[in-house]
């Protein structure tokens, strides 16, 4: 086992805490590795690739050099050239998240003998191991079992070993309900030869034993309840680590690497904590921590406020750690400096550090760091050769015609009241529930049905990360653009009190605005993600007063012009993620589900668009909300794609004005809340 100190006292303490013998393992003695031997090992990490293999925007049908695994591979090759010794791991959310992924999982499902395109691409560069993210479960356990080549003792999964990735996948905190055993190997040991150097400069080739253990976010039981309930159980990441660490330590590894599909949160620990990295780093025996899920970077300023976190050099409670972005935009790199002391490999913390290498190093534009496509690393030429045929098949598939539109549907100003991109989703959901619900719940046949949707693409990834469906022919690609995730439709029964609480939670998307402030105030609360800003339609109307504190912002809530009473009953069509507790909305925990559709929301939307072959305003529900009038002394601002003011005005938002262009495809806008 590797101990995490260069001082003898710390070595002894760590050994005692880990429950290991203080004497070197006999195998280590037999090797007679000299004291002071040093080896630098680069631990490389990808995470949250979401099957973005190529640098391509399927929705706009054009190249996008700011993302894509094919460019991450360029950085991987660079790192392997720079570091004599390296290991490469993936932290999950790998198989879902792009049109190509949906094509292979749903439209033209691959058979047992075929390897998934993302795994073929990863095998082309060579990985040493990986874990399973929450989105791996989106397509169900049978599909996950097949494409990972992992027979599972769960309902619907086959026992045949199908084609999977050529590297080990580990997952310690998910077990089958049939036998209580893990559905993946909880941990495994890999052995590699590394180049090491004696104090006099001589080079040796020595063995290194690395144990890897993996973890997924425990809330998968809520997020994918329909796929997982009754089939698996999930334990907390700390409990799972504590369960398996004695087994790992008994094999005397030189390093223990925890691969967590999760980030960091140091609020009081619970077994269902979504981002348990801070606590996992505190489990004795874990030497290196690889993280993901939060779609951000570590080291980085987002985590500077956490106790015992070094956001400059990349340490979490003394453990070297990294989180390498998302969508193939970055490569996580830990330079692990090892030194031989007292018969063990020890991490020299003074010479160890973590970095996140971007595929597009930012450049300064107007004094602000900005991403320029011209500054991105080139794509590796091998990867397109691996996936070229299936890539073209996926593009052909999403270009299947499904109708025509006479309206523009965009999300550039979805946060400011433009519901054009949400209206077709809500209309399709409402129509589906109204048709299906009476047969299963005839007592609810006359209860009002509402639709709830959020804009999934609101600029988080960059200036092209917006939905924008122009008038003209519609294809399946447009349906995928309007509904980004492969959720299934779920309907819940709530009362007027619950409806207001739902909307109050959504309104946390906004900062509280002080009318008397003279300086600029940011409208959007960047800590509250756009996909949790649900906007509900179907005969209701409401006003959001951003001058009020969170929880008190929904005013004038009506249904067909009449105030909604707390006891009034509604059925709301939403998605399985939200209905099962995703986003922590009050009253939504899966207990009030009245319809769990087998159909995906995207497919329901596509069929609805086909049934409206000449889509116009009359087919879509009206916008249901606006801001309360508020006269402010200073400007209220937000950021969106540049040069889109005409889009806002065309959709009735005449109080929005572009103020300054950042020069990177984004611009600052003001919103006049007094109109």
Can you give a write-up of this model?
By secondary structure, the protein is α+β, with helices and mostly antiparallel strands. It folds into two domains: 8-385, Purple Acid Phosphatase, chain A, domain 2 (4-Layer Sandwich), CATH 3.60.21.10; 399-626, 5'-nucleotidase,  domain 2 (Alpha-Beta Complex), CATH 3.90.780.10. Helices cover 23% and strands 27% of the residues. It is built from 17 helices and 38 strands. Strands 7, 8, 10, 11, 12, 13, 14 and 15 form an eight-stranded mixed sheet that branches. Strands 1, 4, 5, 16, 17 and 18 form a six-stranded mixed sheet that branches. It has a five-stranded mixed sheet with strand order 28-23-32-26-33. Helix 13 crosses helix 16. The longest helix is centred in the middle third of the chain and has 18 residues, at 423-440. The chain is globular and about 85 Å long. The model is unreliable at 1-30 (pLDDT under 50).
